[in-house]
Amino acid sequence: MFKTVGAIAVASCVLLLAGCGPKAPTPTVNDSMTKVMAPHTQTIWDITSNAFNAKGDGLDPSKISSADWARLEAAGRALRDRALVLAEAKHVTAAAPGEHIMGQEAAGAASKIGHEWDAANATRVQAMIDANPALFAERARVLAEAGDAIVKAAPTRDVRKLYEVSSGMDEVCDGCHQKFWGTDEPPPFPR
After folding, report:
1. Is residue 103 predicted with pLDDT exceeding 70?
2. What burial class does residue 29 get, using C-beta atoms within 10 Å of its C-beta: 0-12 exposed, 13-18 middle, 19+ buried?
3. d(CA 68, CA 170)
4. What pTM, to 2 d.p., does this model score?
5. Which of 121, 130, 135, 147 is positioned for an S-S bond with 80, CB 3.0–4.6 A?
C-alpha cells in the first residue's frame, strides 16, 4: 500500500515539476501565418470549394469524404490552437531577426515600376502590434473561434456551419491583416 501511495506521490511531483519548467517561446506572427494559418485555411477553402452544390450557393455533403472531414477537423484545430497561443501571449513578436516576412521585398519592386507602395516589414508590423496588443489578441481569438467552429462541425458533418465559417474566413483574416499587416492588397501590377 505504501509503495503505491509513494509511487503516486512521486509521479504527481514529476508532473507538477514538468509544468514548472521553461515554456516554449511564443511562435512569431510571421511563422504562425506562413506555417499554420495560411496552409490550414487553404485546406478549408480547397475542401469547401470542391464541395459546392450545382447552384454554387451551398455545399453538397456527398462531396465531402470522411478523410476530408478529418482534414477539416485537423485544420480547424491547428488554427484554433495557434491563434490561442498568440492571443494569450504576454508579448507577440512579428518576426524573428532575419525571418523573411511575406511581401517585404515588394517595396523595392514597387519603386521600380514607378509606384509607391508601403510593403510590410517586421519593424512596421511589430510597431502596429505593440500599439494595440489588446486588439491583436481579440483578432487572434476571432480566428481561434473560427477554427473551433470547424472542429465542432467536423464530427457532426455540419455543412451549414462549415460553409458559414469557410465563406467568412477571408473577413476573419482581413480583420487582422488590415490593422496589423497594414494591408492585404498586393502592390500595383506593373504596366
Report:
1. no
2. buried
3. 20
4. 0.79
5. 147
